[in-house]
Amino acid sequence: MESIRVVSLIPSQGYTEVMTPAAEQRLRSFATLIKQEQDVAPSPEEMRELLKDADGCLTGWRVRIPDSALEGVERLKIIGHLAGSVKRAFPASVYDKGIVVTHAAPVIARSVGEMAIGLIIAGQRQMIEHDTAFKHLGTRGDDNLPYTTNRGLAGSRIGIIGASMTGRELIKLLRAFGDDVEICVYDPYLSDFAAGALGVQKLELSQLLSTSDVVSLHAPSTEQMHHMIGADEVRLLKDGALLVNTARGALIDHEALLAELKTGRIKAALDVYLETLSSEELAVSEYRKLANVIITPGRAGPSAQLRQQLGTTIVDEFARFFTGLPPRYQITAERRSSMA
Length: 340
Fold this sequence. Notes:
- The protein contains 14 helices and twelve strands.
- The chain is α/β, with parallel strands linked by helices.
- The protein is elongated, with a radius of gyration of 22 Å.
- The mean pLDDT is 94.
């Protein structure tokens, strides 16, 4: 039997961040591995040359496989994506070739859920404001904030937009706070049965926005979802509500949100706002002047510990596939159409 050949298209530095020595050793136990020695992704021509004799392929954040790289590639059977968003990683034509695609996003979802709940607690407890007041004013916190603004999760309604993998991880974490937390979800693809299994209440978007104490975004960034939170939607948010976004910046019309934040009526915690700005726009962003918004630079993705599990997950997927078992995290053509 001919040896299984697996090619990693991931640049060398990125590869060591996601693949532990133990995971690589396991992969080498059933396949020949060809790694990148340079810290840039191969060109399309180099990819085509590498893939023509490969049975499996590893991709990651800095790898984009164009259609041209798949011309004449007939042997490739599976692609394992050691990252989250998949649409930019490979073209839809992989499905025409019968190539199976799997990914490590379920691991990343755990980290995003963790970041979301961290931002929720920080925003509701106003940790940043009090820390800033001590460090810059030398006061015992921000005396301008009445104690009634010190909000916890007990007795709150948390509205989740998108019952995605990250949304479901947040639901799991919220369960730790008991029945005092009411969890509601807006997701047009979520069935009543699935909502019941998750133990959440399905709401229409307008109702979720207008009645939730916290609204957390976990929807994919698709053409249909672009600026799904615009001027009309931010006006629906109840007074004192916190809007959290650990998904994609394009989901929010940030000019519309800025206008509402300036009134002081609502708050926001945004991990992905900065991805919508050019380097020149960063310094002049009016969001820098707002005390009622927390901005983090895209840190919701995998923590250092979970990043190391990405390679292990995909090696497990390849081990299953090459022994005749279906991958656990396979992305079908239909699923890809509704994913980020």
